[in-house]
């Protein structure tokens, strides 16, 4: 799915109105029906709803939703940001006029927002935030930032319409006043800012509601940002041949583990064995081999006589892809052997953890990273590779430069992991959860993505497919064990490719 910018969405809006049999009021009604339907399906009618309504079309959505939900039987209280109707957008004014007189205003004579009323709010009432959407510009003017601070101090759950009020659609959200939503019902596309660590937390759960913007416009729109959805994945996944034999599905080599770090090798191998590749060999210190062989007898081993990576595996040409770094350590002889590996093999590599740190410390080694590889830094490792960034915009720029220079894919891990291709396109993951923020989850990703590369997917396919299925495994594990109890080993058994 494409991620369009706020201004592109506005254009899509205008294009749809111009080229399809729908006017802006009807488009707003369609959006509002989608929002109201979500509320009906998810919120009990005994819960009161407090609508905070701004002056623009986001407010217009809020008023239309209040009307629809009032007719559906909800108790709706509407608070307007202004009592001056001439300040409202045309669509907002239209929907104000259509509001049934029985919907309660907090101050019927003024139709004005009154902060005092917050103290009267029942603790289980839900706030529908329709103060500001994609039209926010510059720093917030009062009274909005004060209202947002007040709302954020309340115990009540907040559902934001399109965007948490105050959030800008792309960049520049650090340190801003933004509504802290429990759920954001966003129209047609996720907005980039929702997926970035700067302010993404303010969205709570993101639900994307299609509103039928022109397909023609969307197809032609040019963007470098994409959202990894089930449909994208369906286009990547390959069928397994009926007459297949193990030789045609590739051989993954995992170079991981050092003294006392055999767990990383076990996690990495277990994940690679779920990828569909024909063979998995793990190169690890011979004294660390026992747990691997006991837990995953399907994996073969290539044993290093040292207690860290210090010898190249034999017959490197036999392998289709190499994963390196998990639990590797940074012993001087490991650095030397990694250098030798980079100079001896042109097979695509998945480079993670200490192998990334070695690349960060030894800049001259970067030129030997095989084209078509995948680097999987978490933000700390990324900083070591590219230096500090002042904001998310600069971070993305630095990642793009790294991907272009190495002619490789960069996976920046975290919530909504970003997969950056050498041409600059960035794909944001839609699966995964905070239960995955535990030791070893990255080792599982490295093993899985290496296996996919070996299996025959190219680097961007393996990266996108890998992060999506890895996140899905996390979501399944969270259903089974809960966010707190789930751990990285649980991910392995949930790594299934049953995409519908
Ligand atoms: N295509 C779609 O997806 C569809 C989108 N739709 C909906 O339209 C929404 C976008 O509506 P929009 O363009 O009217 O902007 P919106 O967010 O209401 O903000 C404008 C208001 O905010 C104010 N304001 C701005 N900056 C401010 C500041 N710093 N501090 C304080 N105030 C500030 C500004 O005031 P002004 O600057 O004009 O005085 C104006 O009053 C979108 O999010 C979605 O909900 C659907 O209805 C249908 C299809
Ligand atoms: N809050 C989160 N939401 C979704 N995924 C997360 C979150 N935190 C971590 N993850 C995922 O878990 C993995 C953690 O990797 P990493 O930090 O390398 O762990 P480790 O080094 O312990 O193996 C990454 O794939 C990352 O995307
Ligand atoms: K909003």
Automatic annotation (TrEMBL):
It comes from the Bacteria. It holds the Pfam family YjeF_N. This is Bifunctional NAD(P)H-hydrate repair enzyme. It comes from Dysgonomonas hofstadii. Gene3D superfamilies: 3.40.1190.20, YjeF N-terminal domain. InterPro entries: Carbohydrate_kinase_pred_CS, CARKD, Nnr, Ribokinase-like, YjeF_N_dom, YjeF_N_dom_sf. The lineage of its organism: Bacteria, Pseudomonadati, Bacteroidota, Bacteroidia, Bacteroidales. Residues 9-219 form the YjeF N-terminal domain. Homotetramer. AMP binds at residues 413-417, 442. Keywords: ATP-binding, Isomerase, Lyase, Metal-binding, Multifunctional enzyme, NAD, NADP, Nucleotide-binding, Potassium. The keyword ATP-binding applies. In the N-terminal section; belongs to the NnrE/AIBP family.
């Amino acid at each position: 799915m494409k991620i369009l910018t706020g201004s592109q969405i506005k254009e899509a809006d205008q294009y749809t109105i111009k080229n399809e049999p729908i006017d802006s009021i009807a488009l707003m009604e369609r959006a509002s029906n989608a929002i109201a339907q979500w509320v009906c399906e998810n919120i009990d009618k005994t819960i009161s709803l407090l609508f905070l309504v701004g002056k623009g079309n986001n407010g217009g959505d809020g008023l239309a939703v209040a009307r629809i939900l009032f007719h559906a039987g909800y108790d709706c209280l509407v608070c307007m940001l202004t009592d001056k109707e001439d300040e409202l957008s045309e669509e907002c004014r239209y929907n104000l006029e259509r509001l049934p007189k029985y919907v309660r205003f907090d101050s019927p004579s003024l139709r004005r927002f009154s902060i005092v009323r917050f103290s009267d709010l029942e603790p289980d009432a839900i706030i529908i935030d329709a103060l500001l959407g994609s039209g926010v510009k510059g720093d917030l003017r009062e009274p909005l930032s004060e209202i947002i601070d007040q709302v954020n101090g309340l115990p009540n759950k907040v559902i934001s319409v399109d965007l948490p009020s105050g959030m800008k659609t792309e960049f520049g959200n650090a340190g801003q006043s933004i509504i802290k939503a429990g759920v954001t019902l966003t129209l047609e596309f996720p907005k980039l800012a929702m997926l970035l660590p700067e302010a993404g937390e303010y969205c709570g759960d993101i639900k994307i509601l299609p509103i039928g913007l022109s397909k023609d416009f969307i197809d032609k729109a040019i963007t470098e940002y994409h959202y990894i959805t089930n449909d994208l994945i369906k286009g990547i996944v390959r069928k397994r041949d009926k007459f297949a034999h193990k030789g045609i599905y590739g051989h993954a080599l995992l170079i991981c583990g050092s003294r006392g770090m055999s767990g990383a090798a076990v996690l990495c191998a277990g994940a690679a064995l779920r990828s569909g590749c024909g063979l998995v060999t793990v190169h690890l210190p011979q004294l660390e081999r026992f747990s691997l062989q006991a837990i995953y007898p399907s994996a073969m081993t290539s044993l290093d006589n040292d207690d860290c990576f210090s010898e190249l595996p034999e017959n490197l040409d036999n392998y289709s892809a190499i994963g390196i770094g998990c639990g590797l350590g940074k012993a001087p002889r490991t650095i030397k052997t990694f250098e030798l590996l980079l100079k001896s093999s042109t097979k695509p590599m998945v480079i993670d953890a200490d192998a990334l740190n070695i690349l960060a410390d030894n800049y001259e080694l970067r030129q030997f990273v095989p084209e078509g590889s995948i680097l999987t830094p978490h933000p700390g490792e990324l900083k070591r590779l590219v230096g500090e960034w002042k904001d998310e915009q600069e971070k993305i720029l630095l990642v793009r430069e790294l991907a272009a220079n190495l002619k490789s894919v960069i996976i920046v891990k975290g919530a909504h992991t970003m997969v950056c291709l050498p041409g600059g396109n960035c794909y944001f993951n839609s699966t995964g959860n905070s239960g995955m923020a535990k030791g070893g989850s990255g080792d599982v990703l490295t093993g899985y993505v290496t296996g996919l590369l070996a299996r025959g997917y190219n680097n961007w396919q393996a990266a996108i497919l890998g992060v999506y299925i890895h996140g899905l495994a996390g979501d399944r594990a969270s259903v089974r064990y809960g966010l707190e109890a789930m751990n990285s080993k649980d991910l392995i058994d949930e790594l299934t490719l049953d995409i519908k």
